[in-house]
Amino acid sequence: LFSAVELAPRDPILGLNEQFNADPNPAKVNLGVGVYFDDAGKLPLLACVKAAEQQLTDAAKPRGYLPIDGIAAYDKAVQGLVFGSFADGQAALAAGRVATVQALGGTGGLKVGADFLKKLNPGAKVLISDPSWENHRALFTNAGFPVETYAYYDAANRGLNFAGMLADLQAAAAGTIVVLHACCHNPTGYDITPSQWDEVIAVLKARGLVPFLDMAYQGFGDGIAEDGAVIRQFLAAGVESFFVATSFSKSFSLYGERVGALSVVCASKDEAARVLSQLKITIRTNYSNPPTHGAQVVATVLDTPALRAQWEDELAGMRVRIKQMRQLLADKLVAAGVKQDFSFITRQRGMFSYSGLNKAQMERLRSEFGVYGVDSGRICVAALNTRNIDGVVAAIAKVV
Ligand code: PLP
Ligand code: TYF
């Protein structure tokens, strides 16, 4: 049966982890996968998460099947977080225009949305940014869509090719699904500005494109409200229908619990009810219904004022530490005598930096110095700390 099965290539990012784990170099540093580590190099367990888990254990309940669309209080909490802090969002929620389902991480939200869209509009094309998170291409391809790119990164100028992005969106056929990073672009670290978002939104609207926002890093850029403001802009501009995938993997440091959601904004309450019924079929025929624990933890934190405040503090702590590492990295590269300008690192946001280093340099960083980043030049700034940064700076200084 399996004699003709080919060996699939490993995930370029997750595969790096295996290589890292096998490396005997005691000074090795993993800047590959997008995971936040604290200054001690440890994966944090947030205090708000621990407290919520304690509460849940103290009042332990049996584990029946969840509804297909997940825990109602969780879906409501997600809506509150994504749409509830500004008037246009509150109005959309009050009008019943938003269908939200619990999903298996942000990836699950993307996948449920992709499968639903494929049934709805099988002839559509998908556009992702050039470059994008590799799984965007894989996931929409697997859902049956042709996937192409819109211009985004400008390697020569270490910034964005915004004119190219607008031109590509302008040239897209009506109904094209456009995947957009809501904030903290993975892998480049470059986000468009609020006024550039307005221009993008105007084109999406005028051309009848289908926006699919991926929000995997809310709170890692400038703050929870600041990073979420793009949703307000879509609603304020009168975009009737769009998709938002939410991930709590990073913002709650709950990677392994697979906590995420998909929200679909619709033109009316009636539309939202019909869309929800279709999302539920997609879920039911894939994995029936989602798991309980992670969503219960997140709902408990978001709905308990003291825990919510603690979460906001802890998330701010992660955000501030990453910004400090950006500044430190840029400063230390100058201090190490590196002539090349790396100040762009402080203008990028979120967990990643497109360092501008090429594949050969990234390979040298790995083989000679045990510094693991992605071949594209992407490094995870959120894995730098005061102990490993000097080694990383010295290594980069040697390869540039
Ligand atoms: N979208 C982007 C842009 C990401 O970087 C990630 C990273 O993991 C995800 C989605 C997936 O998140 P999750 O782990 O919650 O599935
Ligand atoms: O980009 C990253 O590193 C994270 C983690 O297939 C990740 O988003 C990477 C690859 C993948 C799933 C998650």
Automatic annotation (TrEMBL):
- EC main class here is transferase
- Enzyme Commission identifier(s): 2.6.1.-
A single GO molecular function, which one?
Answer: pyridoxal phosphate binding
Q: Does the keyword Transit peptide apply?
A: no
The protein's matches in SUPFAM superfamilies, at most eight in alphabetical order, are given as:
PLP-dependent transferases (SSF53383)
Supply the InterPro entries for this chain. Aminotransferase_I/II_large, Asp_trans, NHTrfase_class1_PyrdxlP-BS, PyrdxlP-dep_Trfase, PyrdxlP-dep_Trfase_major, PyrdxlP-dep_Trfase_small
Domain of life, per lineage:
Bacteria
Domain (Aminotransferase class I/classII large): residue spans on this chain: 28-396
Q: What does the similarity note say?
A: Belongs to the class-I pyridoxal-phosphate-dependent aminotransferase family.
Q: What is this protein called?
A: Aminotransferase
Native species: Pseudaquabacterium pictum
Q: From the UniProt record, report the name of the gene that encodes this protein.
A: tyrB
